Amino acid sequence: MNEEDDGTRHQRARIVEILDEHDASVQRHPERQKFKCLIGENEFEDILTYAEVMHHIEVHNSEDDGGEILWRYKRISGHEGPLDKNHPSWKGDRYNVRVDWENGEVTYEPLRNIAADDPVTCAIYAQDNNLLETDGWKRFKRIAQRSKKLLRMVNQSKLRSYKTSKKFMYGFEVPRNYADAVRLDKLHGNDKWQKATQLEMQQLNEYHTFKDVGIGKDPGRDFKKIKVHLVFAVKHDGRHKARLVANGNLTDIPSESVYSGVVSLKSLRIVTFLAELNGLELWATDVGNAYLEAKTSEKVFIVAGPEFGELEGHTLVIHKALYGLRTSGVRWSEKFAMCLRDMGFLPSRADPSIWMRRVDDHYEYIATYVDDLAIASKKPQEIIDALMNKYKFKLKGTGEISFHLGCDYFRDQDGVLCFAPKQYIEKMVTSFERMFGSKPKTNVSSPLEKGDHPEIDDSEFLGPSDIQKYQSLIGQLQWAISLGRFDISTAIMTLSSFRAAPRNGHLERAKRVCGYLSKMKHATIRVRTEEPDFSAIPRTRHDWEHSVYGNVKKLIPDDMPEPLGKP
């Protein structure tokens, strides 16, 4: 614990006993509760009040200077046991706990070791997982019952250390800011993060993102000063990336809609079907740095930091729709819409994110999802050339569609176009393993058991951490349905109704659905265009004239486009 502000001494302390005054008095005045603490390595005991304990925690964790963090791990995410001395996982205690460390590692540690250092977190885990009545965990019952407010505040204090904890992607430590990037480069003897930053700044310069008005200059009363920050990431192939993002939260909320239109997955499937029906090629492409293609209407400026190199200290007015500004999405949407209209495309009345253009006896289509495009045309290369040469867009990933909006596209052995969310399911399984420590069981052949009734489940309610896991699973499974896994829709629709207060049985059912998807991840939707043969199905004609509907006529919109292509 930090005894003084001069930094001359740091001691590690842990609470070993709660010293309550009269119960009623403590309930009315929590600050009167006192604790016996061991300071340092069993050097001496001291009596601290509740306020003093909170002061030490708050003072240390309020530091945001990248200093040393006393909280070495993020959370306890699981346990194994009870164990005996003959068990291969025996480490000196009947229980081992699964610890997620702040450096990204995950290990199993003896419960007594973690409990000796941080009984509060152990008590929280025991309470959330209904272990307080279990031998080996009963020791934490008193802490969980008598110190609820202390547990909550200590947990919040530990969360504050996350912003200074290390983060990893694909084995590389990711910087928190530019100064941290420079530190990591020096540590590893390279300049990968600084080169990534320079590349990002070079691209921003190529797009004329900023207007330099000089050092210490005021761009005018109408302009508001905001901040920007760098977001760092590592790609799956080890490439280091940096992106400059504006702190748009510092600007006023506009009254207009600020979102870029996105095509619905249902509309995308219709375009896919029409492409197959009319013999069109289906391509996909991505507009690089799409937002920077448009100008911003917001009057904001920044003062350049060290990441801007020679421009450090200069006042820069943001000229383009920089990522992070509130209106950047809609500005890009307007820019791209003008280009498509200039090319002869018009938005569909059914879905404005589907753009169509007549060519001879059929229509060409472009489905837009912000900067991701799906193009259905007999000559898609001509559209690509126009976007690149005439409108100067930088396209990437251009070619016959193979992966788009979470779905894999491919042709089977008969040449039939198919799509399935294989990669999405693989990522979902990875997320499952990270949450629960193992892959989902695949010894199932259906989403739920036949005759199962989740609504009558009477198992124990889940604790707060497991509720979050349950809700996360349900969200992932719902998106899998949107991507085409309709076979789990009934099961997930049922389980979704328990999101507010799920039980253990509901979580086990959600895990079962994940296991089912993992086993059946190759299930595929095939786009067949031939008309089915319904001749064997009896067809009865009805006379509706004398029904409640009367003799009605179908209403046809006056501005409906002329039907073209195969029926």
Can you tell me about this structure?
The protein has 567 residues and is of the alpha+beta class. Helix content is 31%, strand content 22%. It has 15 helices and 24 strands. It has helices at 23-28, 50-61, 111-117, 119-128, 141-146, 148-160, 178-188, 192-206, 265-277, 328-342, 380-390, 422-436, 464-482, 489-496, 504-519, and strands at residues 13-19, 34-39, 44-49, 73-80, 96-101, 106-110, 167-169, 172-174, 210-215, 224-225, 228-234, 240-246, 281-287, 300-303, 314-318, 346-347, 354-359, 362-369, 372-377, 395-400, 403-404, 407-411, 417-420, 525-526. The strands form 7 sheets. Strands 16-17-18-19-13-20 form a 6-stranded antiparallel β-sheet, with helices on both faces. A 4-stranded mixed β-sheet has the order 9-15-14-10, with no helix packed on it. Strands 21-22-23-24 form a 4-stranded antiparallel β-sheet, with helices on one face. A hairpin with a 5-residue loop joins strand 22 and strand 23 (417-420). Helix 2 (50-61) runs parallel beside helix 6 (148-160), helix 3 crosses helix 4 (119-128) and helix 12 packs antiparallel against helix 15 (504-519). The longest helix is centred in the last third of the chain and has 19 residues, at 464-482. Mean pLDDT is 83; it is low at 1-12, 14-18, 20-32, 39-46 and 55-71.
Key features of this structure:
single chain, 567 residues, alpha+beta, six-stranded antiparallel beta sheet, four-stranded mixed beta sheet, 15 helices, 31% helix, globular, disordered N terminus
